[in-house]
Amino acid sequence: MSSCLIPCLTYACQTWKYTDKIKRKIRTCQRGLERSMLKIRKIDKIRHTEIRSITRATDALEHALKQKWKWAGHVARLSDERWTLRVTRWKGPSGKRHRGRPLTRWTDDITKVAGSGWLQSAQNRESWNSLEEAFTRGGVLTN
Fold this sequence. Notes:
By secondary structure, the protein is mainly α. It has helices spanning 5-9, 20-38, 48-55, 60-76, 83-89, 108-114, 118-121, 125-130, 132-137.
């Protein structure tokens, strides 16, 4: 599970924006994979916590969020002006925006944990790594 399925499930997860819908899909997919491995049907009414204790698999959502946090720190520490850093700093077009709720951006969940100056705070690896657990635990849903 940890060597094959979790990496396939979280491929390129560093670039995803984690909405509640995406988080729920990752959790649901992993739980389905675990039930399939153990040949447990939903009608058997076995809680996911019991199944997880049997499989001892790493949580796919935590793994994905950890990868995103590491990638964000790497991008922030880039010394040259690569397009990845330029796109990360880009604020979008100026002017009037469309009606409705603004779309979630890639940096929104990082900004919630590290603050608006996360690009500068990522320069210090020790303080950046200390915030990693807060970021990955922020992705845990109650269901």
